[in-house]
Amino acid sequence: MVPEIIIDDYNYDLPDEKIAKYPLSHRDSSKLLKYIDGNVSGHTFTDLPSILPDGAFMVFNDTKVVPARLHFQRPTGAHIEIFCLEPIMPEEYVTMFEVTDRCRWKCIVGNVKRWKNDTLSLYNPLEDESIKEMGLCADLIERQGEASIVEFSWSNGAPFSKVLELCGSVPIPPYLNRDTEDIDLERYQTLYARFRGSVAAPTAGLHFTDAVLENIKSKGITVNTVCLHVGAGTFLPVKSSRVAEHTMHREPFVVTLAFLKGLLERTGKVIAVGTTSVRTLESLYYVGVGCIETGQPCDVDQWAPYSRDYEYTTEESLSALISYMESNGLSEIQLGTRIIIVPGFRFRVVDVLVTNFHQPKSTLLLLISAFVGGDWKRIYDHALANDFRFLSYGDSSVLFRRG
Question: Cβ distance 148 to 105 under 8 Å?
Answer without folding.
Answer: no
